[in-house]
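Please check this today:
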Amino acid sequence: HVGNQRTALYTWLIARRHHGKFILRIEDTDQGRLIEGATDVIYRTMAECGLTHDEGPDVGGPVGPYIQSQRRDLFGKYAKLLCKKGGAYYCFCQKSDEEPSEEETGKEIKKHVCACRDLPLAEAEARVAAGEPFVIRQRIPQEGTTTFHDVSFGDITVENKELEDQVLLKSDGLPTYNFANVVDDHLMGITHVVRGSEYLSSAPKYNLLYEAFGWDIPTYVHCSPVMRDSQHKMSKRHGDPSYEDLKAEGYLTDAILNYVALLGWSPKGELAEQEIFSLDALVKAFDLTGISKSPAIFDKAKLDHFNAVYLRAMSPEDFAKAAEPYIRQSVKGDFDVAAIAALLQARCERLTDIPEKVDFFDACPEYDVEFFTNKKSKTNPEVCKAMLEAAIPMLENLPAWTDEAIHDGLIALAEQLGVKNATLMWPVRIAAAGKLVTPGGAVEICRILGRDETLRRLRAGLEKLA
C-alpha cells in the first residue's frame, strides 16, 4: 500500500544517496497473515517503480537466504543464545495461565510478570529436552529506563516497567516479527531501519535486544503515518488505494512516486519550492532531515495535479501508447488513435478519464437541441440551423480533408456569413460530437471522423433543428 511504498522509496533513496546497498527481505514468519500472491506484488511494484535491490531472494547475496521462513534454525539458535546471555528465558506457561491482557480487562496496563523468569536455565533446558512445549520471551529489566534515538523524533526514554516480556520465539519454532528483524538486521549489516511510527513503542525492546547480544544499534528512521483525513490512517482494509489500485485508476508510476515522496518529506535549500522530481533528482535531493514528524494527508486532488503534469510532459508518441488501451475501451471504429490521443494529452488528469471523453467517435450520443444554445458563441437553434445549412455544402466540396482545409474553409465561411468564428464552430462541433465538452474543437473532430461521417452527423443535427 501507499505507506509501505513510501517506506521502500525512502529506504532506497537513503541507500542510493550514500552509495549503500538496498536489500529486499521477505518477512513471512507470521504464517497466519500470509496472502497468496503478495510477494509477486512486491516484486512487481518495486520493479515498476525502479526501486532496484542489490540483494534479495531473486538476486541472491552474501547473507541469504532472504526469506525469513527459510531462516528458522538460525532464529532458534540466536533465541537460545540469548537465554544463555540472560536476555531471554524459556516460558512454559499456557495462555490460560497468563493474566488477562489490557484489551480483555479494559483497565490500565498491568505488566504480567511470568513466573518462568525465575527458573534456573539448567531446569528450563531439561524441560525443553523432555519435549515440553515452550516459547522464548525477552527478559526486560524491571527497573530503570531505556533510551533510544530516532532521526525524526530525537531521544525517547521509556520506563522499563512499562514494557512487556514479549515473545521472541513461538511454540512452532518460528520467530515473532520483533525478534526476527533484530537478528536479521544485525546479520545482514543493516545500518538504517526505516519504518512507520507505529513501531516507536517497540523500539526500546529492540534496543534492549541489541544490547543483550552486544550488537551495534542501527539508525532508526520512524515515519509518521499517511492519513486518509485528519482522523484516519490510510488502510488497505478500509478500501484505501494501493500502488496497483492507483495504476488501475489511471495514474502514472512516475507521478505516484513523485507524490508519495512528498508525503512526509520536503526538500531543503534552493529546492524547497520544487515539486516535480524524477527518481534521479530525488536521489540527489533526499536528506533525512527533510522527513517530517507530522502525519501527511493523502490528497487525491493533489495527485491528480501531479499526474496531469507528468501526462503533459510525455512525448506525443509515449502518450499515444499509454492512452491507446483507454481510447480503445470506447472507440472500436477505424479511427486514428494517435490523432485522438493528441486531442487528449493537454485535457486529462488521469488515463481513466479518457474513455468517456472520446466515446462520441464511435457513435454520436443522443443530445438535446438546447445544446445548440450558447450565449458566448451567440448561438441558438435558429442561428445554428442557418450555420449548418451553410457549412454542409462547403464541407462537402472541400478539395482536401485536412485540419488546414477544414479550418480555412470554416473561417472563410464565417467571414462570408458575417458572423464570429465561434458562431459557426459551435453548431458544427455540437452536431459532430453530440457533447457540450469535448477534447479538441470542431476542426480536429471533423477531420478524425472523416468527411462522410461528419456530413452524416451534421445532416442529422440539421434535422433535429428543423
Notes: The first strand starts at residue 88 and ends at 91.
